[in-house]
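Record now logged underneath.
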Amino acid sequence: MSLTMTVFLLFQFVFPTTLSVRVRAAVTHEPLPIAYVRVERFGVLLQETVAPDGRIEVPGLPDGRYTIVVDAPGYETAYSEINLPIDSLSTIELRPRNRPRPNTSHSGPSGQTIRRLFHKLFR
């Protein structure tokens, strides 16, 4: 192995990377007031934390591929694949969960309502 390759491999462990994550709302692009962030590697949980104001930093990660999982109240869960050190700053946007519109009924007309309409139309 060449000296350059050996030095490169040693630097990966001597100088770990700090991962910075920013969590924002997809529609407004504003930081979320609170989010739950998990950092995983090969399906193993490495760190789980709360991101106040939508910001966290995870220091001391060796270079490699990671999965970031983000949850926030009222938003869909987001998954992001990153490669350190290239993706050391990651911005994740969460979409709001689909909510029913106010004053709308999810059930159709009742049987009683249909019978009344039928009776009025064909009487």
